[in-house]
Amino acid sequence: MTNPTTDPAAYTDQELKQALARVLALARSERLNDAEVQNFWQLYEEIVRRRAAAGTAA
């Protein structure tokens, strides 16, 4: 898998989904810290960007 400090744009689609799933699983079990919240939004924005580039509705 890609280095977790790498920009989400460098992730494959599968790695992006897995990273988002990990953040969401963590959020279910405990309160996210600021870095984890920021990571969530970066992953989310990358997914939205890819959908827009592919012409898929969000």
Largest sheet: none
User: Residue-averaged pLDDT, rounded?
Assistant: 87
The best one-word shape is: elongated
Q: Gap between N and C termini, in Å?
A: 26 Å
Helical element count?
Answer: 2
Radius of gyration: 12 Å
**Unreliable spans:** none
What does this structure look like?
It is a single chain. This protein is mainly α and 58 residues long. It has 2 helices and no strands. It has helices spanning 13-29, 34-54. Helix 1 runs antiparallel to helix 2.
Which secondary structure elements does this structure contain, and how are they paired or packed?
Layout: H1 13-29, H2 34-54
Helix pairs in contact: 1-2
Compact summary:
With 58 residues, the protein is an all-alpha fold.
Key features of this structure:
58 residues, mainly alpha
